[in-house]
Predict the 3D structure of the following.
Amino acid sequence: SGGGAVRVSVLMTTYNGAPTIGESIASVLAQRFADFELVVVDDCSTDTTPALLAAITDPRVRILRNPRNLGIVGARNVGFLACRGEYVAALDHDDLAAPTRLAQQVALLDAEPSVVLAGTQVRELTPDGRIVHISYGSGNTPVVMRWQLHLRNPYSYSSMMFRAAAIRGLGAFMRETAVYSDDYDLYLRLARVGEVALLPEVLCTYRNHQSNTTHWVKPTMDANAAAILAAVYAPFLGAEAEDAAWLIVRHVTNGRAPPDGATLRRLGFYLHRLLEGFLETYRPAPADEARIREFTGQVWWHSVRAAMRRGRPWLVGEHVRARTLRAGFHASLGDAAASFAIGLLRVPQGRTPTPPRCAPPAPGTPQAAPPPAPWQ
């Protein structure tokens, strides 16, 4: 295609994506929004991907081939530098965009100049062919999405559209130091310079299969996510930010059951301090504050329930005592009763298992003391 500017650059990177990339590209070329280019970065594929790409004649598609394999971060950065659009939309080589995706995201960014990124709801195509809707919180406002970013990644990368000028202002698209959590790192960096939004419509299909990156790089992903969150938490928690970040990654992001009451109390203590610090900083409208407190209460209850169901039903008492965390969300009596009953059945018989650490050992990193009662 020519060298002129376009409204949207769709960025796709690939490495040995032959089984799925054809469908992914077709979903972009079928967009009802016309003013776009598709930039495809082939990161030195060794399968038939180069031949498939070479056969594409559509002038809207630009193919770049790296002379050597750069990895996901390097390939994404090469692609971003080549993008000419005012907005940059992401799509992985195995995912699919709905026909109205670009049009709806462009409309949002055009209407809201303060918004620097916009994701969409997604659906998941499972390995056995089922379609599962993944909800990231339909109807959430930018400040609610900002709070969710403090506790988890509420976006699917393949659903994202960014304001290119905002990214250039950051000085970097993806950072190698955040590899495998590089998208999460980008969202949090962008949130410092603008608002983050989420469209309520399902406009992306995420293909879940065993070759997805997350299945084999989890330790690195978790370590980098914890480092990213520690920096975000530092203004609220100071020296305890690293401990808090590991607890959040393990027990909120990954959903692992806290192994004991002390760990659960520490998690609750940090959630409380982060919540109060966030509300003081951003002062959301009453309706948004209610949504934020509801989401936090859900997060807290899910951790309590997981701990109960792992054979510690008595930890329901921690939920009862944490008044500020449970105020925004009321667990159903049925859920609480079932969790207590399941926990009773799983109480260790005759021995107390050694609880795992909440984070990999870090020399010189102090563990936070159990929280005092006043936070409850």
Q: What stands out?
A: The beta strands are 8-14, 36-42, 61-65, 87-90, 96-97, 115-125, 131-134, 161-163, 195-207. The two ends are 61 Å apart (CA to CA). The first helix runs from residue 18 to 29. The longest strand covers residues 195-207.
